[in-house]
Amino acid sequence: KSGEDAWASALRDEIRWLSRVGLVQPNRTHFANHAGERYLFSKPHVFEADMHDANVRRRVPALARFFEDAAAALPDAFAEADTRAETNHSNRTSPKFPPLSLLARGDAARAVKLQHNKGFGGCFPCHYDNPGGTSRRLLTCILYLNPGWAEGDGGELVLTPFLSRSVRVRPMHNRLAVFYSDRVCHSVEPARAERFCLTVWLDGVAGSVNTSEDTRLSLPASVLTDPDAAAETLRLSAAQRSLSRAVYAEAYRESLTRCMAGAAGCDEMLASHDAAVEATRGNRPLAALVEALRERKAFAEMGGDMEV
Ligand code: FE2
Questions:
Q1: Which of 27, 148, 205, 221 lies at a CB distance of 3.0 to 4.6 Å from 43, suitable for a disulfide?
Q2: 131 C-alpha to center of ligand 1: Å?
Q3: From ligand 1's centre to the CA of 6, what distance in Å?
Q4: Residue 306: its pLDDT value, please?
Q5: How remote is the CA of residue 132 from the centroid of ligand 1, in Å?
Q6: Residue range 38-42: average pLDDT?
Q7: What are 275-297's pLDDT values in tens digits?
Q8: Cα of 189 to ligand 1 centre, how many Å?
Q9: Strand intervals (E) in the chain
């Protein structure tokens, strides 16, 4: 364990060094509003570097090795662990999340980004890492590199599986958080201390992610009018993304307001959010379903967040 912590500390030191020599840049977030207009904004206090940039990797051996391992060793390890878990529960027939044997391998099948939050803030509003479209992301892995993290420093990752209790993950040193990119809505709390992490996005093999089933809300009428059946289907399906914003309208709005904190783009993002929620509520069958799902969401929230 102490050897692993030393490895994590080496990664952290390299990110700190890159930041010092100016190879880490302010965050750039592409955003298209409800009218299809495209914007480029910067999330305050968030600095990043893409490890695909050979100029970044050249001088940072521990990070370069991490980047190499993410191409095959990491998906191999996940696939093997998932197969083992599956064998141990071979009589399980209930619906499941996609198997990790679907993870792709190779240079283009993964992205690795390092992040350095400086100053107060540096948070992220509710979102999915794979919002649909051409994204192939299947799994998100975040390695936290904060040996001195203490309660009150903020920067917790809040995972909210659809209609379930949220899990608040403390960004502790050498901790790896893993979740499905296309079906776990999440946000990051404002940080009050310097914070480091490495994010890896692993793609699924061709045809396994953002299928028409994942991107279109095509529930049969019998399910649409049966909120219990719809809730059970959407909990596991990436199709939840088309209703998430309306079901979690307040959480999206609050987290957006908190994270953008009046920075350029904040008003446009809020207007786009409101328009999207309005559009869903204007569709009568969907509005009824959203209301039923919101009741289930409220019930899940009664237990409070789980803390890990
Ligand atoms: Fe994310």
A1: 27
A2: 10
A3: 26
A4: 92
A5: 14
A6: 72
A7: 999 999 998 888 999 999 999 99
A8: 12
A9: 25-26, 29-32, 38-41, 46-50, 110-117, 124-127, 137-144, 157-160, 167-169, 175-180, 185-188, 195-203, 306-307
Contact criterion met (CB below 8 Å) for 236 and 97:
yes
- Given pLDDT bands bounded at 50, 70 and 90, which one contains residue 259? confident
> Which amino acid is located at 179 in the chain?
F
In angstroms, what is the span from residue 186 Cα to ligand 1's centroid?
6
**Cβ neighbours of 249 (radius 10 Å):** 20
| Ligand 1 center from residue 308 Cα (angstroms) | 18
Say how many Å lie between the CA of residue 263 and the centre of ligand 1. Answer: 19
Pairwise CA distance, residues 148 & 154, whole Å:
12
Q: Using the predicted structure, report yes or no on whether residue 107 has a pLDDT greater than 90.
A: yes
pLDDT at 57 over 60: yes
d(CA 202, CA 77): 12
> Is the pLDDT reported for residue 44 higher than 70?
no
Strand partners, 204: 103
Residue 122 C-alpha to ligand 1 middle, in angstroms?
13
Contact indicator for 118, 47 with CB cutoff of 8 Å:
yes
Residue 168: strand pairing partners? 158, 307
Whole-angstrom distance, CA of residue 120 vs CA of residue 45: 7
